[in-house]
Design brief:
There is one protein chain. The chain is an alpha+beta fold and about 100 residues long. Helix content is about 25%, strand content about 35%. It is built from three helices and six strands, in the order αβββαββαβ. The chain has a six-stranded antiparallel β-sheet. Strand 4 and strand 5 form a beta hairpin. Helix 2 packs antiparallel against helix 3.
Length: about 100
Protein backbone atom coordinates (compact mmCIF):
# COMPACT_ATOMS: atom_id res chain seq x y z
CA UNK A 1 0.00 0.00 0.00
CA UNK A 2 2.95 2.34 0.48
CA UNK A 3 3.25 2.73 -3.30
CA UNK A 4 -0.27 4.19 -3.33
CA UNK A 5 0.30 6.64 -0.52
CA UNK A 6 3.83 7.76 -1.42
CA UNK A 7 2.46 10.53 -3.67
CA UNK A 8 -0.41 11.40 -1.36
CA UNK A 9 -0.42 14.73 0.40
CA UNK A 10 -1.92 13.40 3.59
CA UNK A 11 -3.47 10.36 5.23
CA UNK A 12 -6.16 11.34 7.74
CA UNK A 13 -6.82 9.70 11.10
CA UNK A 14 -9.78 8.01 9.40
CA UNK A 15 -7.43 6.38 6.88
CA UNK A 16 -8.54 8.60 3.99
CA UNK A 17 -5.75 9.12 1.48
CA UNK A 18 -5.83 12.74 0.31
CA UNK A 19 -4.40 13.29 -3.17
CA UNK A 20 -4.75 17.07 -3.07
CA UNK A 21 -4.71 19.92 -0.59
CA UNK A 22 -7.59 21.60 -2.43
CA UNK A 23 -10.81 21.97 -0.45
CA UNK A 24 -13.66 19.73 -1.56
CA UNK A 25 -17.36 20.44 -1.44
CA UNK A 26 -18.60 16.97 -0.49
CA UNK A 27 -17.70 14.13 1.86
CA UNK A 28 -19.54 10.90 1.06
CA UNK A 29 -19.80 8.01 3.54
CA UNK A 30 -20.64 4.53 2.31
CA UNK A 31 -21.73 2.02 4.94
CA UNK A 32 -21.08 -1.72 4.74
CA UNK A 33 -22.60 -3.22 1.54
CA UNK A 34 -22.57 0.17 -0.25
CA UNK A 35 -18.74 0.05 -0.22
CA UNK A 36 -18.81 -2.72 -2.83
CA UNK A 37 -21.51 -1.37 -5.17
CA UNK A 38 -20.87 0.92 -8.19
CA UNK A 39 -22.93 3.82 -6.83
CA UNK A 40 -20.68 6.57 -8.24
CA UNK A 41 -20.61 5.03 -11.72
CA UNK A 42 -24.40 4.76 -11.70
CA UNK A 43 -24.78 8.42 -10.65
CA UNK A 44 -22.34 9.61 -13.34
CA UNK A 45 -24.24 7.75 -16.07
CA UNK A 46 -27.70 8.73 -14.88
CA UNK A 47 -27.06 12.44 -14.22
CA UNK A 48 -24.10 13.25 -16.51
CA UNK A 49 -22.09 14.78 -13.66
CA UNK A 50 -18.35 14.64 -13.03
CA UNK A 51 -16.71 13.53 -9.78
CA UNK A 52 -13.28 14.87 -8.86
CA UNK A 53 -12.05 12.59 -6.10
CA UNK A 54 -9.72 14.47 -3.74
CA UNK A 55 -9.33 11.60 -1.28
CA UNK A 56 -10.82 8.24 -0.36
CA UNK A 57 -10.43 5.24 1.88
CA UNK A 58 -12.16 2.27 3.48
CA UNK A 59 -12.01 1.54 7.18
CA UNK A 60 -13.34 -1.39 9.15
CA UNK A 61 -15.26 -0.50 12.31
CA UNK A 62 -15.93 -3.76 14.10
CA UNK A 63 -17.48 -5.94 11.41
CA UNK A 64 -18.71 -3.00 9.33
CA UNK A 65 -16.86 -1.43 6.38
CA UNK A 66 -17.09 2.34 6.11
CA UNK A 67 -15.97 4.04 2.90
CA UNK A 68 -15.21 7.74 2.84
CA UNK A 69 -14.79 9.82 -0.30
CA UNK A 70 -13.86 13.50 -0.34
CA UNK A 71 -14.86 14.95 -3.70
CA UNK A 72 -16.33 17.66 -5.84
CA UNK A 73 -19.30 17.02 -8.09
CA UNK A 74 -19.61 19.27 -11.10
CA UNK A 75 -22.29 19.86 -13.69
CA UNK A 76 -25.40 21.95 -14.01
CA UNK A 77 -26.37 23.06 -10.44
CA UNK A 78 -29.85 21.52 -10.70
CA UNK A 79 -28.38 18.25 -11.97
CA UNK A 80 -25.77 18.18 -9.18
CA UNK A 81 -28.59 18.68 -6.68
CA UNK A 82 -30.50 15.73 -8.19
CA UNK A 83 -27.35 13.58 -8.10
CA UNK A 84 -26.80 14.41 -4.41
CA UNK A 85 -30.44 13.57 -3.64
CA UNK A 86 -30.03 10.25 -5.43
CA UNK A 87 -26.91 9.46 -3.40
CA UNK A 88 -28.86 10.10 -0.20
CA UNK A 89 -31.78 7.94 -1.39
CA UNK A 90 -29.29 5.11 -1.99
CA UNK A 91 -28.16 5.28 1.64
CA UNK A 92 -24.99 7.33 1.15
CA UNK A 93 -24.36 9.96 3.81
CA UNK A 94 -23.57 13.24 2.06
CA UNK A 95 -21.89 16.04 3.98
CA UNK A 96 -21.61 19.35 2.16
CA UNK A 97 -18.85 21.80 3.13
CA UNK A 98 -19.21 25.53 2.84
CA UNK A 99 -16.40 26.04 0.29
Amino acid sequence: MSHLTSNAHNVSDEGVVMWSDLPARFTLRFMDNKVETPVISDIIRKYDVTFNIIGAGIQKVGDIKVGTMVCDISGDPETVSKAVSSLKKRGITVEEAQV
